[in-house]
Design goal:
5 helices, 29% helix, 8 strands, 8-stranded mixed β-sheet, 197 residues
């Protein structure tokens, strides 16, 4: 196995968005972007203390080396529209998870999420990772459909996987993409992004 290279520390820029490593300068803009309660319906974050508290919690996880979170900036208007992260970092096994992803409503069903996934996957497989995992709440049909559309393989469901602040035990559906599958997934994502002009 080749030794993997570091994933974080730099901005990942595409045609539609830039993924900027999370810094305090992003906190207020992300708190504003995350104001719509519907964003958090399937997210395992307690927003009762405000979205700002969630963002600061992500920053703490980053400081502890448990996550690499990016602020998602839409290039057309320079707006912060959400965030996404690498988590479950396991470089010794050449695997990582992409998740903790959320977007304000104006960024949903646009080029933002496909390009974010494209940039994160390109970065991970370019750093010699072998496996990228994704998971979602089994109730989140939209997220499951997006992962399938991207070309990720559904692996199964972990029942009663985590307690959610919304008051239920969540079943988590796991997906993955392997390095050997990346060329095909990459082609599919590039075609989707081309359709946005």
């Amino acid at each position: 196995m080749n030794e993997v290279r570091p994933l974080g520390g730099r901005t990942l820029k595409g045609r539609f968005i830039a993924l900027e490593p999370l810094e305090p300068r992003h906190f207020d803009g992300l708190a504003e972007a995350g104001r719509d309660p519907a964003i958090w319906t399937y997210m395992p974050h307690d927003v009762s203390a405000g979205v700002g508290a969630v963002i600061r919690g992500l920053a703490e996880e980053n400081a502890q080396g448990r996550m690499i979170t990016y602020a998602v900036r839409r290039l057309s208007d320079d707006a912060l529209v959400g965030s996404t992260s690498y988590l479950a970092l396991a470089p010794e096994h050449a695997k990582v998870e992409i998740g903790a992803t959320w977007y304000q409503p104006s960024a949903q069903a646009t080029a933002v999420n496909p390009e974010a996934k494209y940039l994160l996957l390109s970065n991970a497989f370019g750093a010699d990772y072998n496996r990228v995992e994704l998971k979602t709440d089994a109730r989140n049909a939209r997220s499951r459909a997006a992962m399938k559309k991207m070309g990720a393989t559904e692996e199964g469901t972990l029942r009663g996987h985590m307690w959610m602040p919304q008051g239920y035990f969540r079943d988590s559906v796991y997906f993955s993409i392997l390095a050997s599958e990346w060329p095909q997934v990459k082609t599919k994502l590039e075609a989707r992004l081309a359709a946005f002009g």
